[in-house]
Amino acid sequence: MNFMNLTKAVGVVALLALAGCSDGPAEDAGEKIDEMVTDSKNAIEDACENVKEAAKAENENC
User: Domain of 16?
Assistant: First the structure.
């Protein structure tokens, strides 16, 4: 492989790497899903702790 082909290949790889870092609709959707999952986990844990507190359980952590 000569120097020009190597330079072109490195340039293409660099462009693809930069394109992969950009915020796009798929990444935004993924972040929203992650946030919804985290919110759901927190709500379930809060509900569990409330039930244990109402039952006067020794350990209120879920």
Answer: 3-55
